[in-house]
From TrEMBL, chain B:
Organism from which the protein derives: Rhizobium oryzicola
Protein name: Sulfate adenylyltransferase subunit 1
Pathway this chain belongs to: Sulfur metabolism; hydrogen sulfide biosynthesis; sulfite from sulfate: step 1/3
MF annotations from Gene Ontology: sulfate adenylyltransferase (ATP) activity
PANTHER family assigned to the protein according to its UniProt record, in alphabetical order: TRANSLATION FACTOR
Region of interest called Disordered, as start-end residue ranges on this chain: 1-20
Domain (Tr-type G) ranges: 29-244
Alphabetic keyword roster: ATP-binding, GTP-binding, Nucleotide-binding, Nucleotidyltransferase, Transferase
Enzyme class, spelled out: transferase
Length: 329, 497
């Protein structure tokens, strides 16, 4: 599905001339069901609270479906104003080209203040997930790069799209997740979080990662994208793509830097992605789902979790917790 | 790789096989938030694992990881559910749950958010945290032991945090031979306990979480004598507490001024409802205005209700800033400098008498000093005089004293505007959660005649008076009720009598 909603313009506000209790709310699309509405309200509340309490917030934008939902919610939260903080993309240099094109398209369409950061050390050393391993690549090009970018911008709050249903250590993370000046997360010593009252008090150098999508599940994300007609990168939809099967993962094989290993056969077939990241670390799935409806139909009968294609989670037991302690989102 | 999950599936391949499973229907209700209370011994991990497993919230690769990590399975061919739930390495190593974790599952009818909290006494604070957002509490007990002090403690905390729906899960009923009399005795004991806490909506269910009886699937064949609902049926029909009654409340989070022509107040409706044309008061200033528009991204709305995140536009220039509350003119919250509250101490240092903390409620943050009055003895449910530091995990009654006007509702009446947290000004950590129980009248001694004036005025004149600065400055000392002219005349007559 083409991201046609990118060209959508916000409707001008109508003025209320008289109060008519009989008339129904007039919407261009059907109203959200109460479940999604509750999740949307909670996310908007978090966006506004962080924007009001912190001096220099930033939103991590990773171009995937969760980031797309996050961006949409941020636009809603501050309407009719603009999003009052920049978006930050950590570019490892190994993202799918379709992701970068989509990112720039969004920034243009919505007038976003987009900051892109690549770790200069990693770039000059030519860090590659193939030669340096996925773990080292992620440490340098994602975690270290993120710390650099947050320090450079002196951001005291960073929004992320993480959900608690994604992974076991995330199930314990607060909506406001406190970080030390060197971006460390201490899971055993988190601030209690009661009701929807968030403690936004930090000292200079300390910061908070804020997660407006904490209570969303993968199905919620897709149903919301459908209900709100949110544009997505085309990688989520099946089309003929070239790939190889490597270590049980279907690896995209169209990048000039891709090299087939001895014995590997480059195949072509209908392929799509459930999550997006660095292409050497992100497995595709065989699928014919080329529209949003088909993707959702497929998802609702899916028997494997979305992070299944992610090499980062499988490297070692408790690997996500370890990365998060070190500053990974 | 084979799967021992009962999903018919594709194993390690990422290919998704289309097989028949009913499509998840559109959710026509809000998600139900619940808390599970109990310890490892009661089978809490098994119960939650069973809920996730039988509603198919566990995916195959997660199950495969589980299988890899747990090695041996039990004789039912099920994985060790505790490994699925205890997300932190320290927990896996020590075999305990140390923090609140949130789980998500859904049925065709509804989706659920479970706050999974540890059961031991030193984790009262975690339970209070999980209970703060819960609509319902599932209290777990072992059929072999019945109601214990721990059950009383959990029920007391849950009730204190405002939960009014309890499910008593009488687990391990298989280990007492599915004995109806044992179940009924435990259920009876629990109802008596709950009644002392003011909780009347109670469902007791005999179950075996290990065998999956009366959790998601029916246990009828093992316990034909039980004709009540399963746990999941009870949860599907439970009510959410979102429907706050009472007056309109909008704690202002931020003021939106994208251009000269627009000024909107952004926040989440914390009670009641609002429509364009409604008269509202801005607290603490007391300025009066009318609602001109309710703006959202999608449309200009005709009404907003509790839970809606909105932008409110007023019909005139008034001074409104973050931390103020916009409320309905005819059902206002309490304002004042002294309030009674109950708090749960969350950190090692406890809550010290006389220390000045930051208090945050809604979007409002202000300085407060806290005077402990009494402490709840959890084993007996009795309040004991206690004016010293409230230690971590203590539940206390306190008097809050503010420098500047505070704005609250009673927690019983509004869970949003009646709740607060305390922040330590030295560590900036959250050190207590609290609930407002009453406004403390400033002068209990003011019983002499002539100290107060009861005035009966036409509503429009009262509005004008109240919008003056001189009135607004002492708004928290005034008591305002809106009544019909006939009722006002009756009241005045009563005063003369």
């Amino acid at each position: 599905m083409p991201p046609d909603a990118a060209t959508r313009t916000d409707k001008p506000m109508q003025s209320h001339t008289e109060f008519d209790p009989q008339s129904k709310d007039k919407a261009a699309k059907p109203p959200l069901d109460p479940h999604l509405k509750a999740l949307e309200n909670e996310a908007i509340h978090i966006f506004r609270e962080v924007a009001a309490e912190f001096e220099r917030p930033v939103m991590l934008y990773s171009i995937g479906k969760d980031s797309s939902v996050l961006l949409h919610l941020a636009r809603k939260a501050f309407y009719p104003g603009k999003i009052p903080f920049p978006l930050l993309h950590i570019d490892t240099g190994w993202k799918f080209p379709e992701m970068i094109a989509f990112r720039d398209e969004m920034a243009e369409a919505f007038g976003l203040n987009l900051v892109v950061h690549t770790n200069p050390r990693g770039a000059s050393e030519g860090i590659s997930p193939f030669t340096h391993g996925s773990s080292y690549h992620t440490d340098v090009m994602k975690t270290e790069a993120l710390r650099q970018a947050l320090d450079l911008g002196q951001y005291d709050a960073a929004f992320g799209g993480a959900r608690r249903d994604e992974e076991a250590s995330r199930a314990k993370e607060r909506i406001y997740s406190f970080r030390t000046p060197d971006h460390k997360w201490d899971p055993r010593n988190q601030r209690p979080e009661l009701w929807n009252i968030y403690n936004g008090m930090v000292r200079r150098g300390e910061s908070v990662r804020a997660f407006p999508l904490s209570n969303w599940t993968e199905v919620d994300i897709w149903r919301y994208i459908q209900a709100e007609n949110i544009p997505l990168p085309p990688l989520y939809f099946a089309k003929p793509r070239k790939f190889v099967e490597r270590d049980g993962m279907l690896m995209w094989a169209e990048d000039p830097r891709f090299e087939a290993l001895p014995g590997e056969q480059v195949q072509e077939g209908m392929l799509r992605f459930r999550t997006l990241g660095c292409w050497p670390l992100t497995g595709g799935i065989r699928s014919t789902a080329s529209t949003l409806d088909e993707v959702i139909a497929e998802l609702e009968i899916a028997t494997v979790s979305e992070r299944q294609g992610r090499a980062i989670d499988r490297d070692q037991a408790g690997s996500m917790e370890k990365k998060k302690r070190e500053g990974y989102f | 790789m084979t799967s021992y999950n009962d999903h018919s599936g594709s194993g390690a391949s990422a290919t998704i096989l289309p097989f028949a499973e009913p499509q998840r229907a559109a959710r026509d209700t809000r998600p139900l938030r619940l808390i599970t209370c109990g310890s490892v011994d009661d089978g809490k991990s098994t119960l939650i694992g069973r809920l996730l497993w039988d509603t198919k919230a566990v995916k195959e690769d997660q199950a495969a990881t589980l299988k890899r990590d747990s090695g041996a399975q039990n004789d039912l061919g099920l994985p060790d559910f505790a490994l699925l739930l205890d997300g932190l390495q320290a927990e896996r190593e020590q075999g305990i749950t140390i923090d609140v974790a949130y789980r998500y599952f859904s049925t065709d009818r509804r989706s659920f958010i479970v706050a999974d909290t540890p059961g031991h006494e030193q984790y009262t604070r975690n339970m209070a945290t999980g209970a703060s957002t819960a609509d319902l509490a599932v209290l777990l007990t072992d059929a072999r032991t019945g109601i214990l002090e721990q059950t009383r403690r959990h029920a007391t905390i849950a009730a204190l945090m405002g939960i009014r729906q309890f499910v008593l899960a009488v687990n391990k009923i298989d280990l007492v031979g599915y004995d109806k009399a044992i179940f009924e005795k435990i259920a009876h004991d629990f109802k008596e306990l709950a009644a002392t806490l003011g909780v009347r909506q109670i469902t007791a269910i005999p179950m075996s979480a290990l065998k999956g009886e009366n959790v998601v699937l029916s246990g009828h064949s093992a316990m034909p004598w039980y004709e009540g609902p399963t746990l999941i049926e009870t949860l599907e029909l439970a009510t959410t507490r979102s429907a706050q009654t009472g007056g309109f409340r909008l704690p202002v989070q931020r003021v939106s001024r994208p251009g000269e022509s627009f000024r909107g107040y952004q926040g989440t409706v914390a009670g009641g409802a609002v429509r364009p044309g409604d008269s509202v008061v801005v607290l603490p200033s007391g300025m009066v205005a009318n609602v001109k528009q309710i703006v959202t991204f999608d449309l200009v709305r005709n009404a907003a209700v509790a839970g809606d995140a909105i932008t409110l536009v007023l019909d005139r220039q008034v001074d409104v800033s973050r931390g103020d509350m916009i409320v309905s003119i005819d059902a206002q919250p309490l304002t004042g400098h002294h309030f009674d509250a109950q708090i749960v101490a969350l950190q090692a240092g406890g809550i010290e008498p006389g220390k000045r903390y930051w208090l945050k409620s809604g979007s409002r943050r202000q300085r407060v000093s806290v005077a402990p009055l009494s402490q709840l003895e959890l084993s007996s449910g009795k309040w004991k005089t206690h004016e010293d530091t409230l230690a971590m995990n203590a539940i206390g009654k306190v008097l809050l004293s503010f420098d500047e006007t505070a704005i609250f509702d009673i927690y019983e009446q509004n869970r949003s505007t009646g709740a607060f947290i305390l922040i330590d000004p030295d560590t900036l950590n959250t050190v207590a959660g609290g609930m407002i129980t009453a406004k403390r009248s400033q002068a209990d001694a003011a019983h002499r005649d002539g100290q107060r004036v009861v005035l009966s005025l036409p509503a429009d004149l009262a509005d004008q008076l109240m919008s003056t600065e001189i009135f607004a400055a002492r708004r928290d000392e005034a008591d305002v009720r809106r009544v019909s002219a006939a009722r006002a005349a009756d009241l005045m007559k009563d005063l003369e009598a």
